[in-house]
């Protein structure tokens, strides 16, 4: 009978959470291709939306499995956030290309995409830069931001013209909420990063 792996054992990179992360990375170009196969066709947009939802579900699954089974690896720490940012980034950029230069109804103005992606990749860089002082964990605001972004992107990916008017309003409310939460939590993370760095430097001096 095989002994269960101890918590102190280093998990192999060949595990389910990492496989799900790799799948999510491969789904990014699939999503983009589907989004541009038929931007004004509900069938193609539905297919793209399904791929996006599946990819986001792999994000939920790999995080839960990694933590519950003690399968957190250096590979996962590096590539899981990259996969997340690549997926949402591809969605935002695709929707903004719809707005300009394609001029397709239901596109997303570029200022949403630029502000959100600068914040997302900027905070990812800050996390890496202060890693030697401490880990900056996700807070409730960050989780709310991720949820609103995800829901907004699902509705926009499917296509606002294919939604009833009330759901179009919901989509825009979610997108504005996502933008506001992205900016607010960005400043919050910067404040947390500054404190972690200050405390880390103080401990090194002490």
Provide the gyration radius in Å.
Answer: 19 Å
CATH domain class name: Mainly Alpha
- Write down the domain tally: 1
Number of strands: 0
One letter per element, helices H and strands E, the order comes to HHHHHH
Say what the CATH topology is.
Four Helix Bundle (Hemerythrin (Met), subunit A)
CATH architecture: Up-down Bundle
- Please identify the oligomeric state: single chain
Give the overall shape, derived from the CA principal axes: globular
Number of helices: 6
Regions with pLDDT < 50 over 5+ consecutive residues?
none
- Give the averaged pLDDT, no decimals: 92
Structural class: mainly alpha
The CATH homology group name:
CDP-alcohol phosphotransferase transmembrane (TM) domain
Distance between the termini: 49 Å
The largest sheet is:
none
The percentage helix is over 70%
Taken as a percent bin, the fraction of beta residues is: under 5%
Question: What order do the helices and strands come in, and which of them pair?
Answer:
Elements: H1 16-37, H2 42-68, H3 74-99, H4 110-129, H5 140-158, H6 165-205
Helix pairs in contact: 1-2, 1-3, 2-3, 2-5, 3-4, 3-5, 4-6, 5-6
